[in-house]
Design brief:
By secondary structure, the protein is α/β, with parallel strands linked by helices. The chain folds into 2 domains: 120 residues, Aspartate Aminotransferase, domain 1, CATH 3.90.1150; 220 residues, 3-Layer(aba) Sandwich (Aspartate Aminotransferase, domain 2). Helix content is 35%, strand content 14%. It is built from 11 helices and 12 strands. The strands form 3 sheets. Strands 2-8-7-6-5-3-4 form a 7-stranded mixed sheet, sandwiched between helices. A 3-stranded antiparallel sheet has the order 9-10-12. A two-stranded parallel sheet has the order 1-11. Helix 3 packs parallel to helix 8, helix 4 crosses helix 5 and helix 4 packs across helix 7. The radius of gyration is 20 Å and the shape is globular. Bound molecules: pyridoxal-5'-phosphate.
Length: 354
């Protein structure tokens, strides 16, 4: 900490992103990116003409992209908020809907960014333990009188809760935002978007980083009541109205136009996930029931941190969290069939060496 930093950030512990190695080619199964490139339409739209227009600011409203997303999700353009990745949206939600009196709750084992934002804005927060089987017990989030943040499917477990449970949470917290983070919903989860019309306190956030193969472009969106979207716009226009660049906006539009391509990729990933789960179980792993593009697995014979390190030596990167309740596990992003075949070979080698 420098002598210039405001003392209010003294205790702040920043988020640690997964490794983005530059030293060698790994089979990269550690940050839940898509193994597939963006659609041919996206690649075609980012052309010399678009680059030439970079001397102009982008549309701060993102009108065309909002219209396309609204149509795709069966809502109105006023129900859509766009931002620079969904982390940006989470940031805005904590900034807009919480303060030192309006607290937040989220699962103890979940996306590591939630407590960072809560600390950043000095929001009192409660981390609610998962059940023994790593599932979220919805009753723990009813009548909490705070903003509720739930990743569904949850990370890093991959497990989901149902819409009935989400509705109970929404009904019992009518004066607070219930933020459902659907970063992984396209891999077989159930979206809460259909409930937006009924519950003005529901906010669903989504991202182009996982199922839409655009982690490097930074684009996320939220779907919610007009009331909530107006609040988020107010914060965005008070910080950085041009927070989505021109190239990302056109890429985002082209991706909606080629939605079929991404749906097919998600199907491939689901099939590869199911095959990988089966193979790991055959090797003696315990694997949680995943509805995401990653799986969370552990083996009696090897501690998570060691498994991670041995895989890395063999050129395969996965993610390990040094956290008491989950340190036996590693999180494995689902790649292509060819990548998973190598991952499984290396895994079998590591187990045989024991
Ligand atoms: C990856 C992820 C995000 C962030 O995605 P970006 O759009 O790349 O910022 C948000 N929430 C969860 C649970 C994630 O796993």
């Amino acid at each position: 900490m420098s002598r210039f930093l405001s003392p209010r950030f003294e205790a702040l512990e920043a988020y640690t992103p997964g490794e983005q190695p530059r030293d060698q080619q790994y089979i990269k199964l550690n940050t839940n990116e898509s193994p597939f490139p963006p659609s041919p339409e996206v690649i075609e739209r980012i052309n010399a003409d678009e680059v030439r227009r970079l001397h102009l600011y982008p549309d701060p409203e993102g009108k065309f992209l909002k219209e396309k997303l609204a149509k795709l999700y069966g809502v109105e353009k006023e129900n859509i908020f766009l931002s620079n990745g969904s982390d940006d949206i989470l940031n805005f939600a904590f900034m807009a809907f919480c303060d030192n009196e309006r607290g937040a709750v989220f699962p103890e084992i979940s996306y590591g960014f939630y407590p960072v934002y809560a600390d950043l804005y000095q929001v009192p927060h409660m981390k609610i333990p998962l059940k023994e089987d790593f599932s979220i017990h919805y009753k723990d989030y009813c009548n909490v009188n705070k903003m509720v943040v739930i990743a569904n499917p949850n990370a890093p477990t991959g497990m989901e809760i149902g819409l009935y449970e989400i509705e109970e949470i929404l009904k019992s917290n009518p004066h607070h935002v219930v933020l459902i983070d659907e970063a992984y919903v396209d891999f077989g989860g159930t979206s809460a978007v259909g409930l937006v019309e009924k519950y003005p306190n529901l906010m669903v956030s989504m991202t182009y980083s996982k199922s839409r193969s655009m982690a490097g472009a930074r684009l996320g969106f939220a779907i919610a009541s007009k009331e909530i979207i107006e609040d988020l716009e107010k914060i965005k226009f008070s910080t950085n109205p041009y927070n989505i660049n021109r190239l990302t906006l056109v890429a985002g539009e082209a991706a909606v136009d080629s939605d079929f391509y991404y749906k097919e990729n998600s199907k491939k990933i689901i099939a590869t996930r199911e095959a990988t789960v089966k193979a790991l179980k055959n090797l003696g792993f315990i694997v949680l029931d995943s509805k995401a593009n990653f799986i969370f697995a552990k083996h009696d014979k090897i501690y998570g941190g060691e498994f991670y390190a041995e895989l890395k030596k063999k050129g395969v990167l996965v993610r390990h969290f040094e956290k008491e309740k989950i340190k036996d596990f590693v999180r494995i992003t689902i790649g292509t069939d060819a990548q998973m075949k190598i991952f499984l070979q290396k895994t079998a080698e590591i187990l045989n060496e024991r």
